[in-house]
Write a structure and sequence with these properties.
This protein has 9 helices and 14 strands. By secondary structure, it is of the alpha+beta class. It has a 3-stranded mixed sheet with strand order 2-1-3. Strands 5-4-14 form a 3-stranded antiparallel sheet. α1 packs across α2 and α2 crosses α8. It starts with 46 loop residues before the first strand and ends with a strand.
Length: 323
């Protein structure tokens, strides 16, 4: 069921790489003082402390964003999509800087662990991963960061929690469909990607009766799972974005986002079929579904949308402006 909480959201990141695919949590909206001027804060002039494993280092926002865009979005995507990704991540950086450092890394502004912050791909790692494509692809990423220098997504004059995910099933999810409350700029909107434009848009995963029972009871020992799997599952209820709201399992309603976590599903847009021997999930899309869809952004770019238009498409009521 939907949860409305005035205090804000609990962020679950699950990344395309992450895009925000791990458990975490944004605090209530920060209340920084409104700037007196619209001066640009250039990325090269902002220094961050980044934790990489057991060490920390200083790097410019420009360098950090370049590594994050490498790690979060395919460098082969349309340039307008890459620019949108850079500006979205920059917005997230400023949002988190206003909210304060996380308990996971109190001595650093951000870390390179995608389950905590954002995926980060260093230049060395990118050379190894991309091989002969490194030079042209890295040039595209650097250009995306440079072209959006100092630009962020704003709502009421403040940088937003610009979360993103890999792909949606026709519509993105509202924040309250996934986390502990709503934000006015994170509502459900149409997203144009589909089977023709997204690799592995549909996925199927099957568990034996024993495997499914073990996973369910490990998370919810109170469940009554007698008999065979075809007796465990009731009908699924969906929310407005087509994702599973709840499923009755062993006499208890379990949220779709929780079943996604339990079974490691690519998204909460799924159907479940159970027989006497197994449980099968058929899943559409990848990621938590909130905010900008990366494959949707790529499709919008192919249709002629600018990076600013892409961001304003996915973050309702927001505008693009100086950090």
């Amino acid at each position: 069921m939907r949860k409305y909480a005035a205090a804000g959201l609990v962020l679950t990141v699950l990344l395309f790489g992450g895009a925000y695919l791990a458990a975490g949590g944004p605090a209530a909206e920060p209340e920084p003082a409104a700037p007196e001027t619209a001066a640009v804060h250039h990325d090269r002039d902002v220094t961050l402390t980044i934790q990489d494993g057991g060490t920390t280092e200083q790097m410019t926002l420009e360098r950090y964003l370049t590594g994050v865009v490498r790690g979060e979005m395919p460098a082969s995507f349309e340039m307008e999509a890459l620019r949108a990704q850079a500006a979205a991540e920059r917005s997230y950086v400023y949002y988190q800087l206003a909210a304060g450092r996380k308990d996971a890394h109190p001595d650093a502004d951000f870390c390179t662990d995608h389950t905590c912050c954002s995926a980060y791909l260093s230049e060395t790692a990118a050379r190894e991963k991309w091989g002969g494509d490194f030079a042209p692809w890295n040039t595209r990423v650097e250009q995306a960061v440079s072209d959006t220098d100092g630009q962020v997504v704003l709502y009421n004059g403040r940088p937003i929690l610009a979360v993103f995910h890999s792909s949606s099933a026709g519509r993105t999810a509202a924040a309250g469909d996934v986390w502990s409350g709503d934000l006015p700029y994170l509502v459900s909107v149409d997203s144009p990607e589909g089977e023709e434009t997204v690799p592995n848009y549909y996925s199927t995963v099957t568990f034996t009766a024993a495997e499914a029972k073990e996973k369910l009871l490990a998370a919810h020992p109170e469940l009554k799972l007698s008999g065979t799997p075809d007796r465990w599952f009731g009908a699924a209820a969906e929310n407005g974005s087509g994702r599973v709201e709840t499923v009755s399992v062993g006499g208890t309603d379990i949220e779709g986002t929780e079943l996604r976590r339990i079974f490691g599903l690519r998204s909460a847009c799924f159907t479940v079929a159970a027989d006497s021997e197994s449980v099968t999930f058929r899943v559409t899309g990848y990621g938590h579904g909130v905010g900008m869809s990366q494959y949707g952004a790529n499709q919008l770019a192919r249709e002629g949308k600018t990076w600013q238009e892409i961001l304003e498409w996915y973050y309702t009521g927001a505008t693009v402006g100086n950090a």
